[in-house]
Amino acid sequence: MREQKFRVWDRIQEKMLKPQALSFDMQSSAPFAVSVPGRSWEPIGKYILMQWTGFSDSNGIEVYEGDLVRISSIIYKVVWNKTLATFELLELGSFSKCEISTVECSVVIGNEFQKSNLSQEKLRYTLF
């Protein structure tokens, strides 16, 4: 079985955190509470939960849902495809997709919340 890793984006403080623990509903398997460093259990709605894809980029950086990666000169966002139940890469400003396994040839350049060096206009078109 593959290791499960998560990170959370704190909507209020606008920072990425590593959760200490997650609590899931027994019937729906949906997360409902999270514990982060320095705080007790809080409702999951205060955060955006992102799962590790199981892959790392060419520099060994773990790739999570919501990350922005560059392959050659093309920038992709890591997204979860609910229909296929898999992660995939969606090209920014396009509807083109790549298999998630190609992320091993990429470089993580940021994520959809901490928007790195990308133009705000290009991100707004793709992410919102």
Automatic annotation (TrEMBL):
Top-level taxonomic group: Bacteria
Ranges where the YopX protein domain occurs: 5-118
InterPro entries: YopX-like_C (IPR023385), YopX_protein (IPR019096)
Pfam families found in the cross-reference section: YopX (PF09643)
Gene3D superfamilies in UniProt: YopX-like domains (2.30.30.290)
Record-given protein name: YopX protein
Top-level taxonomy: Bacteria, Bacillati, Bacillota, Clostridia, Eubacteriales
